[in-house]
Amino acid sequence: MKAIGLMSGTSMDGIDIALLDTDGEDRITFGPTGGIAYDESDRTILRAALTAATALTDRASRPRALADAERRVTDLHADAVDAFLRVHEIDRRSIDVVGFHGQTVLHRPERQLTVQIGDGARLAEILGLPVVADLRAADVAAGGQGAPLVPVFHRALVHAAALSMPALIINIGGVSNITFIPATGEPIACDTGPGNALIDDLMLERIGQSFDRDGAAAGSGTVDRDVLTQLMRHPYFDAPLPKSLDRNAFSRSLVESLSTADAAATLTAFTAASIARSLRHLPEVPRLAVVCGGGARNLAMMQALATALPCPLQPAEALGWQPDAIEAQAFAYLAVRSLRGLPLTFPTTTGVPRPLSGGLVFRPADRAA
Ligand SMILES: Nc1ncnc2c1ncn2[C@@H]1O[C@H](COP(=O)(O)OP(=O)(O)OP(=O)(O)O)[C@@H](O)[C@H]1O
Ligand SMILES: CC(=O)N[C@H]1[C@@H]2OC[C@@H](O2)[C@@H](O)[C@@H]1O[C@H](C)C(=O)O
Predict the structure, then answer these.
(1) Number of compact structural domains in the chain
(2) The CATH number of the domain where 57 resides is what?
(3) DSSP string spanning 101-170?
(4) Is the pLDDT of residue 369 over 60?
(5) Whose CA is nearest to atom 6 of ligand 1?
(6) Ligand 1 mean position to 65 CA, how many Å?
(7) Residues 331, 362: one domain?
(8) Example GO biological process term (predicted)?
């Protein structure tokens, strides 16, 4: 099937988009990738949605700030797909399905609550294409963490690249997560701790910049070891798998008294140290770790990780993968798996009691089954 995947991640930097031709198993042909950046007004709407979402007790409820954000998010995704099809001269009728993650505004799996805004029915109608959305809901309803979802795609990437196993994929987005791919058996995965979100928030607050480009601020600062030790005392790191995180699970209050450079250096070291700590929960030391997500572009982060990890490290780009598009590709892949009733999550990835499929299918009126 030809599938388009759409991801709006916790960094809230924009929408990633990718085309795949896949059976949802080991056959994958990679198509073009792209994306659109959110502007400051979009981000303001999203931040208001995150704040409003903290009061939610019901995943379907849409107070005003969330309803407004959901409409905006959906329409921007539709615009992104239209532009993508136009730029790459892709015939809309050749697309079988669109995998639509939406924007996570709240993630509290311990309360069986995970909320992604994005209206699958509206997107299907605007695009005139079948849409698979709400891919986390079934897992959480069955008692899983609802995240991470990408591990099954990480496994397919590792198989396609014939990497020696066990291999580790590290994704440094707003939040960081890992997938451990053993030589046999299901992937093992979890969210590890912060990714770029704390650093992004720091940069915005201190100097009005949306991220620490190439890790320049962190590279010019000094890690405050005492603060790092305190940050690493958070109980999340020793908690057993499965586990996943809300974007705002960690606070940067401990770096408030530091200079911008030292605070950036310390938060960057915090992300690297918490990723390295997560390896304690794995059965073996991986032979190779591959880093993807925007954090792979942060040189200070890559340096801190190379020091902290007990195995060799490569950026995903070095394998010919497209680090910024992997999550979008994953949601294309997951949409095809959803249509085929294949499992998206496993006891070893989200703690769901048995391998489970998921996703809701929305078909436009003129493509109704
Ligand atoms: N050149 C760069 N230098 C430093 N950091 C960068 C660079 N490019 C991107 N980033 C970081 O990567 C972030 C975006 O990463 P990515 O797109 O992987 O996150 P996401 O998909 O939103 O998150 P998640 O994986 O949590 O869903 C930016 O917010 C920024 O912090
Ligand atoms: C609830 C939610 O949206 N979680 C995101 C977030 O961003 C990274 C990490 O935390 C991961 O668990 C997940 O995203 C990826 C796409 C995943 O589910 O694999």
Answers:
(1) 2
(2) 3.30.420.40
(3) EEEEEEEEGGGTEEEEE--HHHHHHHHTS-EEE-TTHHHHHTTS-----THHHHHHHHHHTT--SSEEEE
(4) no
(5) 294
(6) 25
(7) yes
(8) 1,6-anhydro-N-acetyl-beta-muramic acid catabolic process
